[in-house]
Write a structure and sequence with these properties.
Largest sheet: 7 strands, parallel
Shape: globular
Distance between the termini: 21 Å
CATH topology: Rossmann fold
Order of helices and strands: EHEHEEHEHEEH
CATH class: Alpha Beta
Number of domains: 1
Helix content: 25-40%
Strand content: 15-25%
CATH architecture: 3-Layer(aba) Sandwich
Length: about 160
């Protein structure tokens, strides 16, 4: 299998719901990740996760949803590959272990837990209208900037 390069996997994390502006930002993030040829990994459900997947699919991108339930049909319709964990929020650790970097868009405590896992593992985190509880989190002004900064940080 010499010469085959694995695609970069980038996480998009955020809430099951969000304001119109947050969801718009998530969709742009998804689009920009796909334009760079990376795979979008998320929690696979609604809100920010669905918006990001929709954006990625609009550019022909690949999406993976690591869902908290045991039913693959619970994933949003823009997820290409569903990993049904039946683990509830414990699946957040799996999401983080599957990516090179993370963009947090909005979100609440579940998103904060994912940020904590990422920081503990040394995985870069970019915040877009999300948590900035430590200087280790990179704050982005807009969706395009969030993706650019993250890709610069992960060296892709």
């Amino acid at each position: 299998m010499q010469g085959i390069r694995k695609k970069v996997q980038v996480g998009v994390i955020g809430g099951n719901s969000g304001s119109e502006e947050v969801l718009k930002q998530a969709e742009i993030v998804g689009r920009e990740i796909a334009k760079r040829g990376a795979v979008l990994v998320c929690g696979g459900m609604g809100g920010v996760m669905e918006a990001a997947c929709r954006g990625a699919k609009s550019e022909g991108g690949i999406t993976i949803g690591i869902i908290p339930t045991g039913n693959k049909n619970d994933a949003n319709k823009y997820v290409d590959y569903v990993i049904a964990t039946d683990m509830g929020m414990a699946r957040n650790a799996i999401i983080i272990n599957s990516v090179s970097g993370v963009i947090a868009v909005g979100g609440k405590y579940g998103t904060l837990s994912e940020i904590g896992f990422a920081l503990q593992k040394g995985i870069p985190v970019v915040s877009l209208s999300s948590w900035t509880v430590t200087s280790d989190i990179i704050k982005a002004d807009n969706a395009d900037n969030a993706v650019s900064v993250l890709f610069d940080k992960i060296g892709e």
